[in-house]
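job 3f2a | input accepted
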Amino acid sequence: MPIDKKAITKAIEETKKDSKKRKFKQSIDLVLNLMDLDMKKPESRINELVELPNPPKKDVKVIVFASGDLALRARNAGADGVLGKEDLDRLVNDKKAAKKLAKETDFFISEAALMPLVGRVLGPALGPRGKMPTPTPPTTVIGDVIARHRKITRVRVRDQLNSQCSVGTEDMSGDLIAENVQTVISRLENKLPKGLKNIKRAYIKTTMGPLIKIEL
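job 3f2a | predicted structure (216 res):
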C-alpha cells in the first residue's frame, strides 16, 4: 500500500514552516530509516538513479567521458564538461584532482569503450560515492541522456540502515514534491526484499532544517 500523499504533503508544509530562511534556495530531502536488512548482503545495498516526475530547478553538474563525434555532440548538448582519454591519462597520478572531480560532479556518463579506463583511473574516487558513470554507446542521442540525468535523484543504501536523497526545493509546491517522494518510495518498494515493510520511518527536511516525520 503506497504512502498517503496527504501525509507527505502535510510533512512538507510543516518542514517549510519550521525551516529558517536562508540566503540560498534549500533542497527538500527525503530521509528513510530502514529495518530488517542485512547490510553484509549485496542485495541489501541499493544505488538507484530515480528520474523525478517533477525535477527541481537547480544546477545539476553532468560530465561526459567521450571521444570523437560523441564528445562534440556532448559539448553541443550542454554537458558541464567533456573528458577524453588524454584527460583521463592526466588524472592517473593526480588523486587530489580525481577526488575534487568526484566531489563536485553530480553525475557522470561515459562512452562504453572508455568505461575500463574510467574505472581504473577514477574508480577509487567514484566507487565509494556511488558515482560510477552510466555507460552509453557512441551512437546514443547524448543530449537526451544528459537531460534525463538533470532530472535524477540518487538513492543509496550502503553501510547503514538509512538513506537520504533530494526530492525538490523549497520553492516547489507540496503536491509536486509529494509526487517525487512517492516515486522514490515506489522504486525502493520494488528493490527492498520486503518492500515497504523494510521502511521503519520516513522524514522530510530542508537542507538546514529539522527532520519532520511522515506519518506512515
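job 3f2a | The beta strands are 27-34, 46-51, 62-65, 81-83, 107-111, 134-136, 152-157, 162-169, 199-206, 212-214.
job 3f2a | closed
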